[in-house]
Amino acid sequence: MSPPATSQRYPSPSQPSGKSEVSDLKSQLRQLAGSRAPGVDDSKRDLFKKVISYMTIGIDVSSVFGEMVMCSATSDIVLKKMCYLYVGNYAKGNPDLSLLTINFLQRDCKDEDPMIRGLALRSLCSLRVPNLVEYLVGPLGSGLKDNNSYVRTIAVTGVLKLYHISASTCIDADFPATLKSLMLHDSDAQVVANCLSALQEIWSLEASHSEEACREKDSLLSKPVIYYFLNRIKEFNEWAQCLILELAVKYVPSDSNDIFDIMNLLEDRLQHANGAVVLATVKVFLQLTLSMTDVHQQVYERIKSPLLTLVSSGSPEQSYAILSHLHLLVVRAPFIFAADYKHFYCQYNEPSYVKKLKLEMLTAVANESNTYEIVTELCEYAANVDIPIARESIRAVGKIALQQYDVNAIVDRLLQFLEMEKDYVTAETLVLVKDLLRKYPQWSHDCISVVGGISSKNIQEPKGKAALIWMLGEYAQDMSDAPYILENLIENWEEEHSAEVRLHLLTAAMKCFFKRAPETQKALGTALAAGIADFHQDVHDRALFYYRVLQYDVHVAERVVSPPKQAVSVFADTQSSEIKDRIFDEFNSLSVIYQKPSYMFTDKEHRGPFEFSDELGNIPITPEASSDIVPAQQFEANDKDLLLSTDEKDDNKGLINNNGSAYTAPSYESSSNTITSQMQELAISGPATSTTTPQSSFGFDDLFGLGVSTAPAPTPSPPLLKLNPRAALDPSAFQQKWRQLPISLTQDYSVNPQGIVALTVPQSLIKHMQNHSIHCIASGGQSPNFKFFFFAQKESEPSNYLAECIINSSSAKAQIKLKADEQSTSQAFATVFESALSKFGMP
């Protein structure tokens, strides 16, 4: 019995069945190259499609280059296009093969069909092979004089390509002069636009070393040329119109009549359906009338309607772009748009980024006449399911109140938000109430009566909790439970992870102590002890400062921490007027979208923190040789000595406390020692004069329940984690571990000023950390942003710790990400790392 017949399978055109597939294509193309049989063009099309398909998916088909060129001898324009595509792809990488294409491309440049002439000329100029430049001059010269506008358009673009391949050849052939003549006399608008674009680029590049090019570049801004373009602007497409309008912005009118003539010529461009044309026209109007105040204001009135129409008629992306420009105009002239505030109400189906910008617009246009309606609308958004928009709406209400518009009603609205019992609403509202009380202290009674009923346990967000704590300290005399609420928060110090909240707790406890000393005494002592023992540098420093100033003189401490305050009249603006003017000068650009001048996102030295990937990626990795390891240096550094006088430092030398420090700071121990009246008098009255020697700290410490003993300090305890000073790790192993291990800990540290100065040479930090047995395996970035990858190993066992450290020298902050083989010891390594980093730059 014969086997069943198998169905014939044909290979997919996008997947060659074997190594011989390209060879088969080559032989089939060679057979068809000289054939004139009927239907041969259809066969060529199928083969050409296969070649292009293979080329597209990355298969090397350069071996059929000669056969493709031979098969190009046809009048079929589809075959011509595919052949030109193939040639353009392989010509640059195979200059020798490109010589094979010159003859047939030059022949096609003289074809009777203008489409083929244009395609051949474009392909010829796209070869971009310096050795073939001499073959471009002739076809380009003929193309610029061609009777068909399509060929002339291609030829103008080809001149620019020739300039980038060989500028001298282009200038010697006098092509710029030919382009200028075409620009001023050609009847086709697209040819004129291409000439303008090409000449602007050529003359801008030549102007740096040619006075003639400078003169020619300036001639584009002459009155005859500008008016020539403006009179023909309706003939051009949108891209060309924007090009001409950008040119018109640079024109300097001779007088006011010149300004009005230009504005009359461009009046109908404000009604154009394309947003880019409208914005470019608006920029011309605004720039021309900057020196004419009355006319400039009338321009705002004139451009308002077209811009508002574009906001409501386009896509969300276009609406955002137009709104960004409108926001810039509203900030400069809010009264012009005050009556149109309803255009900035949020629609339910708009994206969040559009809603957020509209909220900023509503804040900017608010005044006495529309505040009630705007605030009513914003209050509706506070219950929005989109939490970020709800937050922004609450902030917008607060900003309007800070502008002194209808403060009474707005304060009532804000206090009603506290009854919504939503964590994010409560947090945002508390922050705004704090700002309002700073500006309007007369509202403290009404606000405190409501805020006093809020439980701190119901506030989870750090900024909301910090605002509540600030009010507890600032208005402790008006809130009967303030000392007890603060005491409860201080008792849970270890559970509070936010350094901002801990800082506010210290300050609030100090303020409350000065107003209600007996009730706050114990809580303040606990807070100071906990703060001094805190791992966060800022918290530690503030607690130590408060401790020292209290120890010196309580009255001085009160004047420092809780002085008489004046109401804040104006809150600092995030942007200076200079930056806003710079953004206005760059109207109709990305500067308006980003709300920052172009140099801030184009110049490297002004960019924000780098967006580093989680991988080492492009950062060069150089493994450290064991011979490069610097021996660890033993030295003593005491950050607490920063607040000591020279005499005190000398007196304290040799004294060692629990932490190995030269200063005996209060330990963090809860104590319930009885406070005698004599000690209380000592703490409240302070020294008789400011020149007296500070009293012994023991009575003072005991006053606050810190439980300091006069017994000799115990022997310093050994460090929790010992690191191997000669640890080694292969870069590839580091990369693999970094990908696999989860992030154990993320923390932000402050870098001391001396360290920031020393960071001008990043190698100094690498050597410093190496002295602490923490080794750098990769580094990158430049001022003000630096990135380092560190690793360390336990001394007793091969357990690795990996760290990513991003330091911003302008803000003096360091962001640390830690990964560890043993997750349980991550905090111990973090303490060692933070200790080493805090000593960077110290003598």
From TrEMBL:
Gene Ontology BP annotations: intracellular protein transport; vesicle-mediated transport
Alphabetical keyword list: Membrane, Protein transport, Transport
Biased composition regions of type Polar residues, renumbered to the chain: 655-672
All copies of domain Beta-adaptin appendage C-terminal subdomain, residue ranges: 721-838
InterPro entries reported in the protein's UniProt record: AP_beta, AP_complex_bsu_1_2_4, ARM-like, ARM-type_fold, B-adaptin_app_sub_C, Clathrin/coatomer_adapt-like_N, TBP_dom_sf
GO molecular function: clathrin binding
Entry GO terms, CC: clathrin adaptor complex; endomembrane system
Keyword Cell membrane tagged: no
Region of interest (Disordered), ranges: 1-26, 648-672
Principal subcellular localization: membrane
Family annotation (Pfam families): Adaptin_N, B2-adapt-app_C
Protein's UniProt keywords contain Zinc: no
Superkingdom in the source lineage: Eukaryota
Subcellular location as annotated: Endomembrane system
Main function: Subunit of clathrin-associated adaptor protein complex that plays a role in protein sorting in the late-Golgi/trans-Golgi network (TGN) and/or endosomes. The AP complexes mediate both the recruitment of clathrin to membranes and the recognition of sorting signals within the cytosolic tails of transmembrane cargo molecules.
Subunit structure: Adaptor protein complexes are heterotetramers composed of two large adaptins (beta-type subunit and alpha-type or delta-type or epsilon-type or gamma-type subunit), a medium adaptin (mu-type subunit) and a small adaptin (sigma-type subunit).
Family note: Belongs to the adaptor complexes large subunit family.
Protein name from the UniProt record: Beta-adaptin-like protein
Source species: Arabis nemorensis
